[in-house]
Amino acid sequence: MTHYDTSWFDEDAPLLRPYAVTRGRTVGAGHDLDMLTLVVVADRPPQLRYTEPEYADVLRLCRIAHSVAEVSAHLRLPLAVTKIVVGDLIGDGYLNFRAPLNTEIGPHDVHLLRAVLDGIRRL
């Protein structure tokens, strides 16, 4: 009987599944997604053509808008894998997305200061 060393396996962190979900891809389907990009199911998405359960899980979760980072955390998938799955769904018309707002706003931006002041007044 041959004994194989399985010490490199970690039962809590499956290594093959993310590779299988992305079909070995390391880049998405053309959408450069930020982890703060918001995604939500399209109004009339086509019938799901993916057989991997992660795709259906993303659609189920994104009935309300979530960031790519939130999707990754909820589904316990690596962020890189989540970006590929979400990119596939966006490319095929299942999800709508909105890139995060420009965060390089200076401290003297009038629009930002007005928005903060309006928020404080509503309190």
Description:
The chain has helices spanning 16-21, 53-61, 68-75, 79-91, 110-122, and strands at residues 38-41, 66-67, 95-98. It has 123 residues and is mainly α.
Amino- and carboxy-terminal Cα gap: 73 Å
Q: Give a short account of the largest sheet.
A: 3 strands, antiparallel
Overall geometric form: elongated
Query: What share of residues is helical?
Result: 25-40%
Structural class: mainly alpha
Radius of gyration: 19 Å
Strand content: 5-15%
Low-pLDDT ranges: none
Q: What is the oligomer described by this structure? A: single chain
What string, H for helix and E for strand, traces the elements in order?
A: HEHEHHEH
* Major beta sheet, strand line-up: 2-1-3
Indicate the mean pLDDT: 78
Number of DSSP E strands: 3
Q: Number of helical segments?
A: 5
